[in-house]
Amino acid sequence: MIHVLAVITAKPGMRATILEHFRANMPAVHAEKGCIEYVPVVDAEGFPALYGPDTFVVVEKWATAEDLKAHAASAHMAAYAAKTREHVADRRIHVLSPAV
To answer: Which of 5, 13, 40, 56 is most exposed, with the fewest beta carbons within 10 Å of its own?
Structure first.
């Protein structure tokens, strides 16, 4: 299994706009071969904020590295990137595997 943590920082005040496009794209991603989990998360209320109001983290789980590569190359991800590119300040992708 492959785990991905994608830390997306929006330009000030644009997180909600990016998340709107993200949520619209979620059904296509969930339908992809090998997608186990794909969900955006933000700082939980009542705990110290790690990321702040302009950042969200995408928690992903994929069955195989090939499935993740196909996801990254998909047409719907290219369309999502085109719709959100101007609103993103920074994007950090961490691809991980389970510690053995």
So the answer is: 13
Query: In the chain, what are the domain boundaries?
Result: 2-96
Phi then psi for residue 61, to 5 deg, are -135, 130
Top-tier CATH class for 2-96 = alpha beta
What are the strands of the beta sheet with 35-41, ordered from one edge?
35-41, 55-62, 2-10, 88-96
In whole angstroms, give the CA distance from residue 34 to residue 1. 9
**CA atoms of 25 and 58, how far apart (whole Å):** 13
Q: How far apart are CA 27 and CA 85, in angstroms?
A: 20
| pTM of the model as a whole | 0.93
* Dihedral, 87, 85, 66, 4 alpha carbons, nearest 10: -20
18-68 pLDDT per residue, tens: 999 999 999 999 999 999 999 999 999 999 999 999 999 999 999 999 999
